[in-house]
Fold this sequence. Notes:
Alpha-Beta Plaits, 4 strands
Amino acid sequence: MNTKIISFAALVIVVAVIVGFQQPSVNENTLIKKGMIKVTILYPNAEGKKFDMDYYANKHMPLVASLLGDSLKLYGIDKGIGGRTPADPIPYAAIGYLYFDRLSAFQKSFGPHAEKIRNDIPNYTDIQPVIQISEVLR
């Protein structure tokens, strides 16, 4: 009987330790607020075009984030996997998102580094990106 109680107590302690040390998950939606500026970078898919997602996700976007500093609040990356249906060709090879509190924060942080950021594009793609700057409404 004592062995069962000790085993049960040990299990409870292990579960408590695991639960106690878990990091609270951060939902991106809690970081994105109405009025923020979202810069969307779209890479239109076309036959014969190249896009190195590994480089983009692990080198280019972290480079951009380091250059933009604290003015960049969040960034995201989408990888195209299907069109209107999974069988349709993807309209965009990738889409990147950059979030800022204000338009001026984007302009001040991006301007001085624009050339360095543009010069890195040939390292992962031959697609001319399409940029849209938006205000987050929801």
